[in-house]
Amino acid sequence: MTTEIRIRAFRTTDDYETCLKFIEGHRKVLAIYGIENISTNTYDWIYNPAIFVVVVESMDRQKLYGGARVQCADGLTPLPIEVATGDMDPKIYDVVREASLYGTGELSGLWNSKEVAGFGIGSLFPSRVSVVIAEQLGLTTMFSLCSPTTVRFNQWMGSNVLTSVGNQGTFYYPKLDLIATACFLEDVTTLKDAHPREREKMLYLRANPTCVIKEKSPFKNAYVDVHYDIQIRSARKEEFKLGVKNTTHIV
User: Fold this and answer.
1) Is residue 237 domain-resident?
2) Which residue, 69, 84, 122, 248, has fewest beta-carbon neighbours within 10 Å?
3) Are 95 and 164 in contact (CB under 8 A)?
4) Would you say 207 and 193 are in contact if contact means Cβ atoms under 8 Å apart?
């Protein structure tokens, strides 16, 4: 187990090479579970400037331990949750459309290698950072389609189950014997519904996007020095606000 890692965030079009490593690592993990039909398990997304990547990597940037993506709603490319669940429940299109007026996106593509499984390094940490960078991107809300394991991470960070879609928020996806849960973070700005511990961490990272923190695994008695490099130089807060600014969201 490594004791020192870097967590880095960037726009897809700023680092194609790391995006390719991300895809390779994600596919290897999905193959372990016999999953091949994840809606975003393609190469198309690496050319989309509305997608931002969070990677957990070795200090020399040669090895990826996990990561996640934040796809911003740009009015052109559907969010992964729309592609995955739209045929099962078209209401998701209206929900996303309304949220996109004020700036919304989706946390997706979350994975971690077997090497760090159970430590939270490849799952909880990039999920947390994805919420942190959402503020840089001008997002006010965030969707996610979670596995049973990652629902709790999203709830720690302030998300709630989106019961207005699917079967009270659940879908059979990506296979009939697997259940995915739609979650919605309604307040990226203040993170008012987040667990106090997570809210404190996220607000600190928002104010200090370049820092080193000794982090403890939430599941094991293990520590790792995390070098955060999550300031996205090309981010513009008005880029993904598609309609009239408003602080009220009806979902």
Assistant:
1) no
2) 248
3) yes
4) no
> How many structural domains comprise the chain?
1
Q: How confident is the model at residue 162 (pLDDT cuts 50, 70, 90)?
A: very high
Kind and range of the H or E element at 211?
A: strand 210-216
pLDDT in tens, 18-34: 999 999 888 877 776 66
What pTM did the predictor assign? Answer: 0.90
Alpha helix ranges (H) inside 79-209: 80-85, 91-100, 124-136, 151-156, 196-207
Contacts of 229 (CB under 8 A, 6+ apart): 6, 7, 8, 9, 209, 210
pLDDT of residue 149: 85
Contact criterion met (CB below 8 Å) for 72 and 240: yes
3-state secondary structure 7-19: EEEEEHHHCHHHH
Helices (H) and strands (E) in the chain, counts: 6, 10
φ/ψ of residue 114, rounded to 5: -60, -30
CATH code of the domain containing 166: 3.40.630.30
Length of the chain, please? 251
Q: Whole domain around residue 37: which residue ranges?
A: 4-229
The answer as to whether 246 is a domain residue is: no
Residue 76, in any domain of the structure = yes
**Residues facing residue 56 across a β-bridge:** 7, 66
Tokens of 187: 């307040």
Asked whether residue 68 is assigned to any structural domain, the reply reads yes
Q: Average pLDDT in the 58-83 region?
A: 95
Cis before residue 90, ω within 30 degrees of 0? no
The pLDDT, as a whole number, for residue 120 is: 65
Cα separation, 113 vs 99, whole angstroms: 33
